[in-house]
Amino acid sequence: MALIELKHVVGGYGGAPILNGVNIAIEQSDIGVIVGPNGAGKSTTLKAIFGLLKVTGGTIEFGGEDVANSLPDKLVPKGLSFVPQEKNVFTSMTVEENLEMGAFTRTDDFRDTMRWVYDMFPVLAEKRRQPAGELSGGQRQMVAMGRALMSKPKLLMLDEPSAGLSPRYVIEIFETIVRVNKEGVGILMVEQNARQALAFASKGFVLASGQNRFTGTGPELIADPEVAKSFLGG
Amino acid sequence: MDELIFFINRVLISGTVLGSIYALGAIGITLVFGILRFAHFAHGDMMTMGAFIGFCIASILAGMGIATPIPIAFVVLPLAMVVTAAIALGIDKGFYAPLRRRGVPSVTLLIASIGVTLMMQGLIRLFFGSGTRSLYINETKEIFRIDMSAFGGSRPISITEPQVLMIAVTVVLVLALHFFLTRSRLGKAMRAMSDNAALAQVSGINTALVVRVTWIIAGSLACVAGTMLALDVALMPDLAFNIVLPIFAAAIVGGLGHVYGAIVGGFLIAFAETLAVFNWTSILRPLTTWLPFDLPANLALVPTEYKLTVAFVILVITLLARPTGIFKGISS
């Protein structure tokens, strides 16, 4: 059984639906990547899973449980975490406080998890007392991921983690995502750097107009001439 | 020396007391703005309400013949804070929360809070009349006089017992709030939500709980500020409505959403007001012989009745020079 399964999800912000039947299934061992043109409903799909907009049709199951229209304070304890694309750190708070906020829903001792995050992002350990707003773009992205990992999620959702980063950091962030996945966290991410991201995706989803166009493993999609022509820029 | 003592008595002590009142009021406004993103106009009346609740409890105790070593208003303060916090929660649940659920713009909430202001003032007048009362129930102010003759002063530095208690209570509350915001899980969650509400929600922070805690803190601090103002002036229905402008100015000058900014802003406005209405002649008198002109009997920068303009002027200067306030506040 899939860790998360979306079946024919329809939803939007109240007006005309933006999602017109999205299907996604991810195992905990997977790295799922959603690609597609602007306005295809990629970010909207993640937001729909996270209860940030109204799902009016279809089902969203997480761990076999229907979670459609559940709010984040219910979803995070179930093992779902989300890194928004923008404004994804608490700028006035220190790096360590940002991580603590990621563990807000936990009542147990989370120091081990914090050590785990610092092991993964050593630069954050160095800057733990610094306000997150003073960090560089790449480091902020690490804080944002670290914050999301503090709840010990089964599935980590990332909205364009490489947006606005220099090429060096893009590679670093992607490498980190692969490493997080090897530690047993399922990944579902939206990416603008489609070709690069699909290269390491075990599941790829091409969305257009709020619907699945192509589904397959990342390398399969890259090899598909039609996908390459329409969605990966030739 | 006497001039310095006069300055301490008239400016330092009363400025500190007024600053404490403004700071506690401004903290509430800044917290509500930080979390809920609207200017809570009814905050002044929440202060007045708090003072009247204290008055009721104190009257009951005094009626039972209970005498306290310190002014009874301070003894009943914790209970009055709890009741005011409960009323603040009730007001939010009854008036602001339904509007928030509909996703109204923040100006609608501002207008709603003006409605709450009128309602609360009406209720207070309905129950207590429009007259002036004293929060000192069968009590006299004890005055501490610090003899300064050793330093060549002929007059003592005098400070009343309530003034000492007010300053002490403010220090304790501000420190408690500081530790709450920097050490506790819920306090940090409050700062997180003030910093970035959307991300706080995404992190799984129980935002409804944070809103409740905000009202509890804002309401109980308003009760303290109102009680202190009533002790400093007198208890009347429009008591704190008159200082809504200075406390808003304090919150804005300090940087909206910024608690320490509100404290700094509160003291800044209070001292500016106190200094502006201070009669400088009393201090300059020893220099009469060197001055080329005669000192007028009253040399104040602003007549007392125009005290309110001081807050306005500081507010305008801040908005022109540094729109986000001394500490960088939210510029929504």
Task: Give a brief description.
The complex is a heterodimer of chains A (234) and B (332). Chain A is built from ten helices and ten strands.
Describe this entry's structure for a reader:
The complex is a heterodimer of chains A (234) and B (332). With 234 residues, chain A is α/β, with parallel strands linked by helices. Chain A has helices at residues 42-49, 72-78, 95-102, 111-120, 122-126, 137-149, 167-182, 194-198, 218-223, 225-231; strands at residues 4-12, 19-26, 31-35, 54-62, 65-66, 80-83, 155-159, 186-190, 203-208, 211-216. Chain A folds into two domains: 1-79 and 155-160 and 187-233, P-loop containing nucleotide triphosphate hydrolases (Rossmann fold, 3-Layer(aba) Sandwich), CATH 3.40.50.300; 82-152, no CATH class. In chain A, the strands form two sheets. In chain A, strands 6-7-8-3-9-10 form a six-stranded mixed β-sheet, with helices on both faces. Chain A has a four-stranded antiparallel β-sheet with strand order 2-1-4-5, with helices on one face. The model of chain A has no long low-confidence stretch (mean pLDDT 93). Chain B is mostly helical. Chain B has a single domain (2-321), classed as ABC transporter involved in vitamin B12 uptake, BtuC, CATH 1.10.3470. Chain B has helices at residues 2-36, 43-63, 72-75, 77-101, 106-128, 161-183, 185-195, 197-202, 207-232, 244-254, 259-277, 281-284, 308-321, and strands spanning 143-146, 157-160. In chain B, helix 1 crosses helix 7 (185-195), helix 1 (2-36) packs antiparallel against helix 9 (207-232) and helix 6 (161-183) packs across helix 7 (185-195). The mean pLDDT of chain B is 91. At the A-B interface, helix 2 and helix 3 of A face helix 7 and helix 8 of B. Chain B: Belongs to the binding-protein-dependent transport system permease family. LivHM subfamily. Chain B: GO terms for molecular function: L-isoleucine transmembrane transporter activity; L-leucine transmembrane transporter activity; L-phenylalanine transmembrane transporter activity; L-valine transmembrane transporter activity. Chain B: It is a multi-pass membrane protein.
